Amino acid sequence: MKTDIKASAAFYTETGIIADTPEKPAVAKYRKDIGKNTYKLYISSKYRPAGVAAQIPVYPNINDTVFMNGFQSATESREMSITGKMNGLSETLSSYLKRKYAAFSGGDYDFARYSKKPGIMHGFSYCYFRSGDKIRLFASLDESLGYTIFRFDAWACTLRVSRDIKGVKRFDDRPAISLFYAEGEENEVFDLWFKALGEREMPFAEKLVGYSTAGKEISEDSLCENLEAMKKFPVKPNVFIIDSKYCANGDWLSPDADKFPIGLKEFAQYAHERELLAGISVSPFTAEEKSDVVRLHKNWLITDCDGKYLKIKNNLYVLDFCKPEVREYIRGVLHTILFMWGYDLIKLNNLYAAALIPSEGLSRGGKMCAAMRFLRECCGGKLLYADNVPLMPAFGLADYCRISCEAVSDNMPVFMRGRIFRESASVKNAASDIVFRRTLDNRAFVNVPCPVSLDEKEFMTDRKLSDSEQNLLITLEGLFTSVHIITDDVTLYNQRKKRQIKKMCSLDGATDVKVINSSERYIAGYKLGDKSYLIKF
Q: Alpha-carbon Rg of the chain, whole angstroms?
């Protein structure tokens, strides 16, 4: 595959397009810095462009594949053939949802264009082209000015690199485009990229094995029972996470008094007595309608240009991160939970909500980067687990980061699946995310896959996983991640289920792990002891 990094560039201003090509240099004042593995483009401060882009000619072979990283943790991300098709939310449905409900799906449908044509696809922060064992990586070096968006057109043989800089007021001599590129073996190339990003200030967190209450109705009694049941875990666990449903979303310091008459502080101590890390979840930038936060502080909520309150999935209102009083509220919540209640790990959900729209002189990407820096500061040396977050703003700041969507059975009638968005729950999408984002593990953060449930599937319309789907996720999570969280009551596990959990936790000893592309089906191969195994996904 041939690539010419000496790309042409274009600046989009209020008066039109100022182009820079070898045939017709731009009249704008700009400069390019081209290094061994970097390409940086600076724009004169006298211009305030609405957008900026560079276009790079690329010539992949017909059998090559391309990977485009999805917008956030839950967005489908996988290697595709160069003529693959990327489906997204239709413009009609997206406009309807925003107009009627002011609701955002958590995807990029509001500001990234989906052509829905074969051979045209886009991604965020990094992408690569694979030819056999070699890849050609194109990646952002900084998202604080705005998200870097890559758009590949197989028919024009171009890779367009643009910035989502809507809302930016000042460049302050920051590069309008800051690009890394390298070619070689997968691990070699990703190591070079992270070296170019700079040394990580914090050491990588340890492997996690344990239990989460995700999706469960919980109470004081059920938490005590589950903590006690950890003694029967198939392998030695080290974490117990209380995942939502303990209070009204937004009122994080006021657990339901009927369910938790003694509060939640004591549960951190109970976990410590059992030699477990105590974890709890918070969605810092959202609140539900019945919460005191929404009832008493309507001025904290974000509105759109029509004055409607913005909402995300599950009808949650969005708090305006740019307001000092909102930041102080969030800071107080995290300080209380981590340093007064004594929790070791905080799982932060729906983080993309911090940057739904540009404001205060910041683009969406700029707000997301600022929000992650703020959360890291609030958490101090405690463990930060980021969920539903655009990935690159979390690099080096999150200890753990979710890299896949939720998993619900694909073996259901089509009309029952409800998959409108690329972020929709699916075993197929979760498997792809786990495998193809493996290169971030222990480079950007510790990768966290979807929690595993081994509940029995009883009928076709049941969203629970079939035996084959359970085996697929257990194998892929064991091979490509070092965080293994289950959501079942382990006291109900039979011997088969216990063996499955032991298998997942033992696969970190697998060798010769590789992924093979075979006619749009992928195969993961590995060796464990003297035996070789293959699994299709």
A: 23
